[in-house]
Design brief:
Structural class: alpha/beta
CATH topology: TIM Barrel
Order of helices and strands: HHEHEHHHEHEHEHEHHEHEHHHH
Number of strands: 8
Oligomer: single chain
Helix content: 40-55%
Length: about 325
């Protein structure tokens, strides 16, 4: 029996009776809620929370969050700020409220419109940290989300040297993961479900959670990081089913939608440990040095990662425009 299989069997046998799957998962993985809805955060009690323009757009249109929208608009009018400023301010206002609920960190996303502009990404990351600081939030509780383009990786390199922690999002490949780790990024978010989406469409077939290409991608990245001692945290993201998420039990972090967190709470089936630094190190792995030319070539050779990165940036940019339109009508 393999080391991983042994760990899974041991964990399944020793799972405390009566604990639901979410409670079991929290014993060996930092659970993060992927939402901007405060009520959902209170219901599932995650350690951290992540947001993006899509989630904030949904939340901002709900009646219970109109006070935050009105506050951002009011500050915009008082200080004669631009629409970009009011957008960023609203993201921070949501982040501040989220940090009153979760004990850990919140991830706040930079604009997808500048995903290929290192200087602009660095400037926006600094702006967010300064704005949070004015509200009394220490930088240790904030992660700046950057799309994992080459320019995003270079922005992370600069920000991390300044003590500003980064969450590399829209990550679909080993090239992106290695580039982010070598830049010293605090955390990466491989998009498990979106990888699965691509392969299901390309191969016209379904995948069981254990053979899910997104799950396998995170396993590969996690193994590489633990083998070579990278401190960068791995946070699986964008899950399509609870089975996908549970296949990565033991990963440093998992950011999970409220719907899937709810499914986990309704089940007491055992949650076996799937990943650990001890069982996943692979002495046969070769270390890869990723400079710009290598990064661009490796990404180019990965059709899935190339397409999903571009699509993700377009989607976030489009949702940001929708949020801008919504806010502009309030001005």
């Amino acid at each position: 029996m393999s080391a991983i299989a042994t760990a899974e069997k041991s964990q399944a046998v020793s799972s405390p009776a009566g604990l639901n799957q979410l409670e079991q998962l929290k014993k060996f993985t930092r659970v993060v809620a992927d939402t901007g809805d405060f009520a959902q955060l209170k219901a599932y009690a995650p350690q951290d929370a992540t947001t993006n323009p899509t989630l904030i757009l949904k939340a901002a249109q709900k009646p219970e969050y109109q006070s935050l929208v009105e506050q951002a608009v009011r500050e915009c009018k008082t200080k004669s700020l631009s629409l970009d400023d009011i957008m960023r301010d609203l993201l921070v206002l949501f982040g501040i409220e989220i940090l009153k609920i979760v004990p850990g960190r919140v991830s706040t996303e930079t604009s997808a419109k500048v995903a290929f502009d290192t200087e602009a990404l660095v400037s926006e990351g600094r702006w967010f940290i300064e704005r949070y600081a004015k509200a009394g939030i220490p930088r240790e509780r904030v992660l700046i989300k950057l799309a994992t383009s080459w320019e995003g990786i270079q922005a992370a390199r600069v920000l991390q040297k300044e003590g500003i922690n980064c969450n590399m999002t829209l990550l679909f490949s080993m090239a992106q993961a290695i580039g982010a780790a070598e830049a010293g990024a605090k955390l990466i978010s491989p998009f498990v479900g979106r990888i699965l989406d691509w392969y299901k469409k390309a191969n016209k077939r379904d995948y069981a959670p254990a053979e899910d290409p997104g799950v396998q991608s995170v396993r590969e990245i996690y193994t590489y990081y633990k083998t070579f001692g990278y401190p960068t945290e791995v946070m699986g993201a964008s899950f399509r089913s609870k089975g996908e998420a549970l296949e990565l039990a033991g990963c440093d972090l998992l950011t999970i939608s409220p719907e899937l967190l709810g499914e986990m709470m309704k089940s007491t089936d055992p949650v076996p440990l799937k990943l650990s630094p001890e069982t996943c190190r692979n002495p046969k792995l070769a270390r890869v040095a990723v400079d710009e030319k290598t990064f661009r070539w490796m990404l180019n050779e990965d059709a899935m990662a190339t397409e999903k990165l571009a699509e993700g940036i377009r989607t976030f940019a489009a949702d940001a425009v929708k949020l801008e339109d919504y806010l502009s009508k309030k001005l």
